Amino acid sequence: QQALSEANNKGWIPCSERLPDKDGYYLTTTMYKEVYCDYWSGVNFDRTEMVVAWMELPQAYEPQESEGKEC
């Protein structure tokens, strides 16, 4: 059920369903539909009163040797 819910929400996990298991940075979305990178302290997010959903940060980009210059 949980995996289905996350798939339906494109990876976003509603805070009403569950909160992160470990401290760290996560993408969060607020009730105003703004997206932030917030810190979860194990108790709350930086924007506690506004966060409605969260997701883990994506893996860092791994450039290929054949790629050109950086931005």
Characterise the protein shown here.
With 71 residues, this protein is mainly beta. Helix content is 10%, strand content 30%. It is built from one helix and four strands. It has one helix at residues 2-8, and strands spanning 13-14, 24-30, 35-40, 51-56. Strands 1-4-2-3 form a four-stranded antiparallel beta sheet, with no helix packed on it. It is elongated.
| Largest sheet geometry | 4 strands, antiparallel
Query: What ranges have pLDDT less than 50 throughout 5 or more consecutive residues?
Result: none
Q: What's the total number of strands?
A: 4
- Integer-rounded radius of gyration: 15 Å
Oligomeric state of the chains in view: single chain
Keywords:
71 residues; mainly beta; four-stranded antiparallel β-sheet; 10% helix; 30% strand
Question: What is the strand and helix layout of this fold?
Answer:
Elements: H1 2-8, E1 13-14, E2 24-30, E3 35-40, E4 51-56
Antiparallel strand pairs: 1-4, 2-3, 2-4
Summary of the model, kept short:
With 71 residues, the protein is mainly β.
